[in-house]
Design goal:
The chain has 174 residues and is an alpha+beta fold. It is built from 3 helices and 10 strands, in the order ββββββββββααα. The chain has one domain: FomD-like (FomD barrel-like fold), CATH 2.40.380.10. Helix 2 crosses helix 3 (160-166). The longest helix has 20 residues, at 136-155. It comes from Nocardia nova.
Length: 174
């Protein structure tokens, strides 16, 4: 008999972005210095170094209207990945005048510009819902946000930034 796939069951990952303190508190509670924060009407940009074995720097846009966090990971040479953008689905919001909060809703999308958008971690979303970590409404919202993003990206030739521009969202990276 073969063993089935084991899902990494965990509560939604919560992260904080302290603009006044120029810090980012990751889901494990580690407080990291942030080089750049920038707010725009459509979201929050963050850029910071990382002490991760696979990447040394990351840039993210929190886009609340789309329920997306778009990230570019600057991978180390020995850990390069075939991806241009990594999209997290979740709730992203200002939690005060100088504080933002993200709650990850498990689904992720890898965008390979001009080629494809791949949905990941459906198993995690279903397991989290079954465990009571997400309501049916939250799970449905996550699926709808992912579907909207994949459809929009695909309809723009798998160009994430082109899709955003069509929605009046102009993002920039360092």
């Amino acid at each position: 008999m073969t063993q089935g796939h084991v899902v990494d069951l965990h509560r939604p990952k919560v992260e904080y972005f302290d603009l006044a303190g120029s810090t980012n508190t990751d889901p494990k509670g580690f407080v990291r210095p942030v080089e750049t924060y920038r707010t725009e009407p459509w979201g929050l940009y963050m850029a910071r170094t990382a002490d991760h074995p696979e990447f040394h720097y990351l840039e993210s846009w929190l886009l609340p209207e789309l329920s997306l966090r778009a990230t570019i990971f600057h991978f180390r040479p020995t850990h390069r990945r075939d991806q241009d953008f990594y999209l997290d689905i979740g709730d992203f919001e200002a939690a005060g005048p100088q504080m933002w909060k993200s709650v990850d809703h498990y689904l992720d999308i890898v965008v390979r510009t001009g080629r494809e958008a791949i949905l990941l971690d459906v198993d995690e979303l279903l397991a989290a819902h079954a465990a009571g970590y997400l309501t049916a409404s939250q799970a449905q919202q996550a699926i709808e946000a992912a579907t909207r993003a994949i459809d929009g990206i695909a309809s723009h030739g798998y160009d994430f930034e082109s899709w955003l521009r069509s929605r009046g969202i102009e993002i920039g990276w360092r």
